[in-house]
Amino acid sequence: MRNNTDKINMEIMENELSATDWALNSLAWELYWWVDAFQIMFFKHQPVPIPALTFEKTRVNTLGHYRIGRNDFAVREQINLNKLHLHRPLWNILATLLHEMVHSYEYTYIEPEKRTKSWYHSKAFREKMESFGIECANNGSHIGISNKGRFAYILRQHAVTFNEIPDFKMFKGAVKFFPIDTKPKTKGRSKLKKWECPCGQIARVGKADFKATCDLCSEKFEHVG
């Protein structure tokens, strides 16, 4: 029997897949298929909860995020893929999807003291991603993909190409990911300092020291400039 999270998220998925007048309907079909595929191929013995996929616009330097706890609709296991960056190649979007599923794995199976906190991605998270053939920096950004890794192999088996990476078929080691396009930002004259929590909520305060916890993800705000 499915738990309440699985039941609600299945209903959200069915609504997205049946919304044929929705511009993202085809992408939703593609990504939910890959969620099932990743479950079988990467999480078979430790399955992650069924996610509710969303496509909200978030800050420009974020590709996606896993919502810790419940979102504004009291739904758990939300994975958001930033609408600003859905133009990326499919393999790149799927790398982000898998990244967020690993966060779900982390919060399902890894003890609290060893989970990712704030911007820093835990050793457990990075090792899990590396086992799939994706190398991550401490801040979670993807810095390399192994041509011999399971992620690349599975995608190629399902006709997903890596044409945007020069000589990828010949490369035997790790290949750097293309950086995402970001919009140039003009610095203002405000003396307020910017603080941000892991789920993307932003606070701007004039104090040099700001101690607060986000109501959405229950994590502390960190100074980001």
Q: What would you say this structure looks like, in words?
A:
The structure is a single chain. The protein is α+β, with helices and mostly antiparallel strands. It folds into 2 domains: 172 residues, no CATH class; 40 residues. It is 32% helix and 13% strand. It has 5 helices and 9 strands; from the N terminus they run ααβββααββαββββ. The strands form 3 sheets. It has a 3-stranded mixed sheet. The protein has a 3-stranded antiparallel sheet with strand order 4-5-6. The longest helix is centred in the middle third of the chain and has 20 residues. The protein starts with a helix and ends with a strand.
Task: Summarize the structure in short.
The chain is of the alpha+beta class and 225 residues long. It is built from 5 helices and 9 strands.
How far apart lie the N and C ends? 47 Å
Which structural class matches the secondary elements?
alpha+beta
Number of helices: 5
Order of helices and strands: HHEEEHHEEHEEEE
Low-confidence stretches: 179-188
How is the topology of this model organized?
Layout: H1 4-18, H2 25-42, E1 52-54, E2 64-66, E3 78-81, H3 90-109, H4 123-132, E4 134-136, E5 142-146, H5 150-157, E6 174-175, E7 193-196, E8 202-205, E9 222-223
Parallel strand pairs: 1-3
Antiparallel strand pairs: 2-3, 4-5, 5-6, 7-8, 7-9
Helix pairs in contact: 1-2, 2-3, 3-4
